[in-house]
C-alpha cells in the first residue's frame, strides 16, 4: 500500500475502503498514473481544459490522490465536474456581451488550473511530511474556496437582480469582477458547504470535532470567495473599451491596447484567484490548529 495514502486514518467511508483495496496492489502507482491520464485526456477532449490545462490538472490531481487517497480525488472531481456543468449552463444563458468582459474563454488553461489547485497540491505534500488534521483542513479549504468562487461566479451571473459592488454597493454590470448578488453569494456558500461535507464524508469520523473541522472548511472557503470579490473590485485590472463603450478585463481587444480604468495592470483574474486560494487555505489550517 502507498506509504502516503496509508497515513490517512480509516473512517469507514467508501473512500477509505477503496484506498485499502486499491493501494494494496503492487502496481497501484502505475494504475493511478493511467487513471489520471484518462481523466486529463477526457477533460481535454470534452473541451473543458486546454492542453496545458490538462497537463496541470494531471499534476494537481495525481499528487493529492497519491498522498491522501481517493478521498482527495473524489473531492477534486466533485469540484471539477460541478464547475464544468455550471460553466456550460452559464455559457448558454449569458449574453455575448458578458462573455466579452472576461479575459479568457471557457476552457481553463494551466494558469487557471494552478491558480485554483496549486494550494491543494501543496497541502497534500505538507500532509505527507506531517499527517495531521490541519493539513487535511488546509486541503479542503483550498478546494472549497475554488468551488465557492466558481459557484458564485457561474450561478451568480444568471441572477435576475442587478449585481452591486461588494465595496460600494453601487450597481455594476453582470460578469465584472467585484460584482455580487444574493444568488451569487448563496451559491458560493453552497459550493463551500458541499466541499466541506465531501471532506467530512471522505476523511473524518462522525464526531463533534469532525463537525467543527468541516465547519472550518466551509467558513474559510466562503471567506476566500468573498476576498476574491473584494480583490476583484479593488486591485484587479479593468480596462475601458471606447469603441464598444464598456469595461472589460481584456487588455487588448481587436488589436487595440486599452487604457487601464482601475486596478493594477499585472493583477488579472488568475492572480486574484491564486491569492484568495492561498489565504483561504492558510486560514483553514490556522483555525484547525486552534481547534486541535
Keywords:
single chain; 292 residues; three-stranded antiparallel β-sheet; two-stranded antiparallel ribbon; globular; Protein PGR; transmembrane
Describe it for me?
- The protein has one domain (70-291).
- It has 10 helices and 7 strands.
- Helix 3 packs parallel to helix 6 (110-129) and helix 7 packs across helix 10 (269-291).
- Helix content is 65%, strand content 6%.
- Strands 4-3-7 form a 3-stranded antiparallel sheet, with no helix packed on it. It has a two-stranded antiparallel sheet with strand order 1-2. Strands 5-6 form a two-stranded antiparallel sheet.
- With 292 residues, it is mainly α.
Distance between the termini: 28 Å
Widest sheet: strand order?
A: 4-3-7
Q: What overall geometry do the principal axes of the alpha carbons give? A: globular
Please work out how many helical segments DSSP would assign.
Answer: 10
Low-confidence segments, ≥5 residues, pLDDT <50?
none
Number of domains: 1
* Percentage of β-strand residues: 5-15%
Question: What structural class is derived from the secondary structure elements?
Answer: mainly alpha
Sequence of secondary-structure elements:
HHHHHHHEEHHEEEEEH
What's the number of extended β-strand segments? Answer: 7
Summarize the biggest pleated sheet: 3 strands, antiparallel
Mean pLDDT: 88
Helical content stands at: 55-70%
How are the secondary structure elements laid out?
Layout: H1 14-22, H2 28-45, H3 51-68, H4 70-93, H5 96-101, H6 110-129, H7 133-156, E1 164-165, E2 179-180, H8 182-203, H9 208-234, E3 238-241, E4 246-248, E5 252-253, E6 256-257, E7 260-262, H10 269-291
Antiparallel strand pairs: 1-2, 3-4, 3-7, 5-6
Helix pairs in contact: 2-3, 3-4, 3-6, 4-7, 4-8, 6-7, 6-10, 7-8, 7-9, 7-10, 8-9, 9-10
Family: Belongs to the TMEM19 family.
Keywords: Membrane, Transmembrane, Transmembrane helix
Membrane topology: Multi-pass membrane protein
Amino acid at each position: 500500500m502507498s506509504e502516503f495514502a496509508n497515513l490517512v486514518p480509516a473512517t469507514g467511508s467508501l473512500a477509505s475502503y477503496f484506498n485499502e483495496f486499491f493501494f494494496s496492489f503492487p502496481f497501484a502507482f502505475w494504475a493511478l498514473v493511467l487513471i489520471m491520464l484518462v481523466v486529463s485526456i477526457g477533460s481535454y477532449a470534452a473541451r473543458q481544459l486546454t492542453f496545458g490545462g490538462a497537463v496541470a490538472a494531471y499534476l494537481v490531481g495525481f499528487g493529492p490522490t497519491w498522498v491522501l487517497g481517493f478521498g482527495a480525488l473524489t473531492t477534486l472531481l466533485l469540484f471539477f465536474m460541478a464547475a464544468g456543468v455550471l460553466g456550460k449552463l452559464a455559457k448558454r444563458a449569458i449574453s455575448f456581451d458578458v462573455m466579452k468582459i472576461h479575459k479568457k474563454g471557457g476552457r481553463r488553461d494551466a494558469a487557471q488550473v494552478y491558480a485554483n489547485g496549486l494550494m491543494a497540491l501543496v497541502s497534500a505534500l505538507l500532509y505527507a511530511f506531517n499527517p495531521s488534521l490541519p493539513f487535511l483542513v488546509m486541503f479542503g479549504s483550498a478546494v472549497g474556496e475554488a468551488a465557492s468562487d466558481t459557484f458564485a461566479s457561474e450561478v451568480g451571473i444568471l441572477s435576475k437582480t442587478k449585481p452591486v459592488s461588494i465595496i460600494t454597493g453601487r450597481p455594476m454590470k453582470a460578469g465584472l469582477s467585484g460584482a455580487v448578488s444574493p444568488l451569487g453569494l448563496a451559491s458560493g456558500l453552497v459550493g463551500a458547504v458541499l466541499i466541506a461535507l465531501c471532506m467530512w464524508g471522505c476523511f473524518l469520523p462522525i464526531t463533534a470535532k469532525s463537525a467543527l473541522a468541516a465547519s472550518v472548511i466551509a467558513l474559510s472557503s466562503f471567506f476566500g470567495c468573498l476576498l476574491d470579490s473584494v480583490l476583484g473590485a479593488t486591485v484587479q485590472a479593468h480596462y475601458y473599451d471606447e469603441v464598444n463603450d464598456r469595461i472589460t478585463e481584456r487588455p487588448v481587444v481587436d488589436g487595440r491596447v486599452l487604457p487601464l480604468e482601475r486596478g493594477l495592470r499585472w493583477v488579472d483574474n488568475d492572480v486574484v484567484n491564486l491569492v484568495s486560494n492561498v489565504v483561504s487555505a492558510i486560514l483553514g489550517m490556522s483555525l484547525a490548529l486552534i481547534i486541535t
